[in-house]
Structures are given as structure tokens and as C-alpha cells.
Amino acid sequence: MKSAVVVLPGLNRDRDMIAALTKISGTAPVTIWETDTDIPDVDLIVIPGGFSYGDYLRCGAIAARMPVMRAVAEKAAKGVQVIGVCNGFQILVESGLLPGALMRNTSLKFVCREVKLQVANANTAFTHRYKPGQIIRCPVAHHDGNYFADAETLARIEGQGQVVFRYAEGTNPNGAINDIAGIVNDKGNVLGLMPHPENLIEPAHGGTDGRGLFESALGVAA
Amino acid sequence: MPVIKARVTVTLKNGVLDPQGKAIEHALGSLGFEGVGQVRQGKVFDIEIEGTDAAKAEADLNAMCDKLLANTVIENYSVSIT
């Protein structure tokens, strides 16, 4: 399984993501840049977290309009798996690959802590290594993770099982509607989530709860 | 080259929670301003466009809003040529 990591000016979690993908798949991902319009033949594209383009205008807004995102959208339309974490999730909603929007945390504060996540749908390409309803630990670090969608969109994504992760046990750090932490598109091949599973993949991190997501997506044995 | 000057105003849609507006509202209250009701914050863009064709400029500005300046999932925009 071949993977690629998108690197943009201002992202800062790209090295963590490259390390996680390398450790879990045994192969280093290809790196693609903001002006790349040709993405090599890969099975998984990951957009990591950070502060692309300084969060100017809106988080992820500028990145979503860069040439590389048109190429990512074309790959996604062909069924290639795409994961966006944190700023990567913001970029996916800004580019229209995922529904809804990510707004300022209701506390108005940047939150950097560990939360509990419930696997709300374990029947996706990204979560099948988890048990349905399983509660996992995961770190978050963001200022704008407050997921919002209008009532009609919300009813649709809830009805179609597109909500994949929810903040659990009262740990919603940002005011996200319905405790939504991560969603997939209607085809199920694009995932966005605010928490950072790449930072909980080996004992040195203090836990391995995030591995299941990458093992699911990369199709590697647990 | 003549320029057309325009102002684009982007505001949150009704029903979208605005925690920043809420914080500003409280701060105004704590400064002693009485009778401040709801505060909603937004963005203003002053944009200069070369040319004299106001209708074309307005159409371009609307397209700019749809494509970049506003996130129409959560925001409304208005364009005025000054």
C-alpha cells in the first residue's frame, strides 16, 4: 500500500505523519507539495495538521485553493483514500471534499489535551480495525475545531453513518455539534478528523490507540 | 488606469454560533456600555479593480466571494461599489 503526504507552507505535523505512516506501513510515504499537480499512483493521501498559510482568511481556506488540492480532489473522485487531520480536516471542508465547516472553539481558546473518542462507525475503510462503539484515547491541538453543519446536512451525514468519530465521556473540547470529531464523505473514501491519531501510535507516545486508524487505511495487520 | 473601489462585507449566517461576537458583547458590557444587544462579528475587504466596467466588477466580486472570500456554508456576503 503506497501513501503520500501533502506538505504545505505552515503545516507542522507533516514529520509526525510521515513517521507514523513509515512505522506502520514499513514504507516511507511520497511527499507532495502545494504546486504539484501530478500526484503519483498511491492508495492513500494524507493532509497533516498545522497552520497552512498562517490560517489567513479562514483555517485551510488558502490551502484548499492551491493546485495540489485540485489534484487531491481528482484522486478522491477516482476512489483514492484521503485523510485530513486537524488543519488537514479544515482544508478538506474548505475544498468542499467534506460537508460542513470548522469554526472557532466555543471557549475561544486553543486546546491542547487528550480526549476520548467513540468510534461511531467501525464499518469504514478507516475504522474497521476498531470495534463498533469502542472508546479510544487521542490527543487534540487546535483553535478552530468546532464542527458545524446546517440542519439538513447534519441529518444527512448522521443518517448515512458519515459521522465516524465522536468526542466521548464529556471531553468535547471545542463545542462541535453532536460531539462530531471526524466524518467521511458520502462515498466513504475521504476522512477528516480534528484529533491527532498519528501522535498515539507507539508505546513511546504513551499509547497506541491511534494505530487502528492507519492499520485500517493501510490494510496492514495489527 | 482607472480603478473601481469596492467593499465586500462577510458576516455569519443567522443561526451560526458566533463565540467571538459573544465575547465582544461581554467586553462592551464590562466597559460600561449599557444596552448593547447582540454583537455579531465579520470581515470587511476593500478591493480595487482596474477598469471602468462596474457591472463586470460586481460579477467578478460575487465570484470572488463564492470561490474564496466567504465560506458560504456559514457566511453571507454583500458587495458594494463605492
UniProtKB/TrEMBL annotation, chain A:
Keyword Protein biosynthesis: no
Keyword Hydrolase: yes
GO biological process: 'de novo' IMP biosynthetic process
A Gene Ontology cellular-component term: cytoplasm
Reaction it catalyzes: N(2)-formyl-N(1)-(5-phospho-beta-D-ribosyl)glycinamide + L-glutamine + ATP + H2O = 2-formamido-N(1)-(5-O-phospho-beta-D-ribosyl)acetamidine + L-glutamate + ADP + phosphate + H(+); L-glutamine + H2O = L-glutamate + NH4(+)
UniProt pathway annotation: Purine metabolism; IMP biosynthesis via de novo pathway; 5-amino-1-(5-phospho-D-ribosyl)imidazole from N(2)-formyl-N(1)-(5-phospho-D-ribosyl)glycinamide: step 1/2
Keywords of the record: ATP-binding, Cytoplasm, Glutamine amidotransferase, Hydrolase, Ligase, Nucleotide-binding, Purine biosynthesis
Tree of life domain: Bacteria
Function statement: Part of the phosphoribosylformylglycinamidine synthase complex involved in the purines biosynthetic pathway. Catalyzes the ATP-dependent conversion of formylglycinamide ribonucleotide (FGAR) and glutamine to yield formylglycinamidine ribonucleotide (FGAM) and glutamate. The FGAM synthase complex is composed of three subunits. PurQ produces an ammonia molecule by converting glutamine to glutamate. PurL transfers the ammonia molecule to FGAR to form FGAM in an ATP-dependent manner.
HAMAP family the UniProt entry points to: PurQ
Protein name: Phosphoribosylformylglycinamidine synthase subunit PurQ
Organism: Pseudaminobacter soli
Gene from which the chain derives: purQ
